[in-house]
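Entry:
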Amino acid sequence: MIDIKRTERLPARIFPLSLSICGLLTLFAALSVFASPPAIAQDVQRIAAVVNDEVISHFDLTNRIRLVISTTNLPNRPETHRRLASQVLRTMIDEHLQMQEAKRLSVRVSKRDLKRTVENLERRNNMKPGQLDIFLANAKIEKSVLMAQLRSRIAWLKLIGRRLARQVGFGEEEINDELRRLEALRSKPHNRVAEIFLSVDSPDQEREVRQSAARLIQQIRSGARFSALAREFSQSTSAAVGGDIGWIAIGELDQTIERALANLQIGQISDPVRTLSGYHILLLRGRRHGESAAADDAVVELRQILIPRPARATADDRKALVAFAQELAPSMNNCGDFEEVAKSIGAKGGGRANRVKVNQVQEELRGIVRSLEIGKPSSPIEVPQGILLMMVCSRTGGSGVTLPDRETIADRLTKARLDLLAQRYLRDLRRSAYLDIRQ
């Protein structure tokens, strides 16, 4: 498959660009030849849709359908073209709206952006430089069809990065809350799920979107690749990875989706599932039960502060040290704070992190480490050398599920919020646009 990587580094690593061109080599022989010149002229003149002041011709639509067919393992027959037409046209309308908004806000896609994207396409698919052009020519697909798609996606990502990224913000406590939530879910059964999501922005779209979802399901059950259709049509950021949303603990998703997944066998797809925001097509890729590996097999990133005790410390001295340690705790809300406090009081080792298995920690401290919440300081612990404070910054293994690090969680939170903002942005563009659909 061919995936588009990002063409520039956007804030918080949002929305990796992706486009699939799966299995084209196996379909070259099946692709039809171009229409005769009179038919081409007629298709160029016929209007499929008007998007504000721009026209999508039937010629544009037909060429884009050819590209989609070549990516999805569908038969290149007239009835396939008819079934795909409305779905492909809706995607093209969205791309025109995105490109128009990008132009309005002076977001430009340079030749360098496109060149870098094409190079990434070739590199990720083990193609030699220039091989993509040959590939498209052999498939009788005009390069301009692909380039128009790339241009609109690059422009939209730039626009989202510049206009919406600054609206996304969260604190360390939200990361800590997410870590605690993930920790609580590690022992629960998980489903590995992929999705195709089609939004419903207004009641008058209900029937059309439901029919589109039904057609996609029919195509998948007839042999089309789920991942390729997800990349082409899904309106979720998971489209970039073929709709795969990974391992999800039971109870994390909308209850309607959970019920649909419960009725699926591995490898099956659901009927259209209606939620508040639109229709979901679900593919159950795998199931696993909550695992019960010993918690002491977990590997933790452990930070420690030792407040030394004088050689002849009295009981009052020990109480004073404990009180001092207790005063430090409220200012340590994450591992960065922990390290700063350690440095500020001159603690030995400066609160430096060490990766260690729980079962390698001193036995008298093992239970504390085992039960510590990630990013939360321990209570003061009296040890022979003085008063000890500890913090677990990450924990992997032990329950069979690896917890992500804080940077990964921050990226996930950013992506989720940007995805929601981008969906609303595009919905508003659709609602305010002049659309005349004629095909």
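Confidence is low (pLDDT under 50) at residues 1-40.
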